[in-house]
Amino acid sequence: MTDVVPLRRNARFQLLWIGSAVSELGSELTRLAMPLLVLALTGSPGLAGVVAGARTVASLVVQMPAGVWVDRWDRRRTLITAQGLQAVVSALLTVLVVSGDVQVWQFVALAVLDGLCAAFIVPVQDTAIRGVVPPGQLHSAYAQEEARTHAAGLIGPPLGGLLYGLGRAVPFVVDTVTFLAATLFYALAKVPRRPADESRDGGEERRPIRRGMRREAAEAVAWLVRRPGLREVTAAVMVLNLLGGAFLIPLIVLVGERGGDARVTGTVLAGLGVGGLAGALLSGRISRLLPPGKLLVAVVAVFGAALAATALPWGAWWPMIPLVFITLSTPALNVVLNVVIARMVPEAMLGRMGAVLNTGGTALKPLGPVLGGAMAAALGGAAALVVLGGLLGLTAAVAALSPHVRRFTGEPSPASPA
Fold first, then answer.
1. C-alpha distance across the termini of the chain, in Å
2. C-alpha to C-alpha distance for 158 and 181, rounded to whole angstroms
3. Torsion of CA 267, 268, 273, 277, to 10 degrees
4. pLDDT tens digits, residue range 132-149?
5. Are 245 and 392 in contact (CB under 8 A)?
6. What are the backbone angles phi and psi of residue 182, rounded to the nearest 5°?
7. Residue 82 class from Cβ within 10 Å (0-12 exposed, 13-18 middle, 19+ buried)?
8. Which of 24, 129, 279, 281 is least buried, going by the fewest C-beta atoms within 10 A?
9. 0.90 cut: is pTM over it?
């Protein structure tokens, strides 16, 4: 029996992880710098929103086709090409900023190209982890991924603001360098080119690679529908994404109603990053307390209770404490569900299934701020947060009543149809 190399010595995974970390840090640097630049050039918050929205819409529209193509194409080449193109896009933006001759339509066009590249990078990264990490180490690998995400979110925006203060083009120069570095790390990681199943003769998953795109996407959806437990958990996560994306505007309104300024609001929201990073580090211990189905119910219930608790009349700074508890619990759920997907989904379908799940979750996210804004306008910040917390509590209760969710362990069932 071959000895399994410890994850910290798994060079391919660590190179893949470093590339992802560097790339994500670069993206977070410009998350604040980009709207600041658009506002400085146009004076229009609306146009700044259009630029950010263009990237999101482009990524959402192409997400499903990208998932299908990732399962068809050479995954290593796809990852390196998409990341390299992101570097080119960032370099073009840097040149435009330095030249001083930049227009809004150019921002929008480059944001769309960046979103298209991201739509391919995410599913390849997800499938690559399964290709380079043994099944027994998947949990540790995804916990490390989760820590990377929260660390980049905590460090990137403040660093981006600092670099922007040194010069408008500086964050974009650094962003370009990070994308180039990520491309190099991905090349060194030697991501598997094809699903392992396609290399086996007579394997159950060996099928013609090229079929109709709609048929391949429908196949992934049908596979999910035939999985009791996983389908209910997926539905609950979609509701969590919708309601979880709705609390930001009511929270900002609440802090303002209590006399807090922009500095106080920013500090309160930092609680999300602090809790998220701590939660990622503790995700292994938290996830061992409950099986995936029951963990989902517990996390949604904690999320709802914490949101409602932000409305307690204890000053403008108080909401920071409940926010820490929200993101302290959610990373464990993210890690567990990533491991469940990696173990249950056939490797030749990972790209498509990731696209199905990401599309379902992302499709509802844009409705969250609209819902939250409408509730804050109608009810006020505190009442809106209490209502959102109550809806999440109701979601947890409905999930807890489902026997499929309560019994869901995330282990592949040999009796399930393929």
1. 29
2. 21
3. 100
4. 888 788 888 888 888 887
5. no
6. -65, -40
7. buried
8. 281
9. no
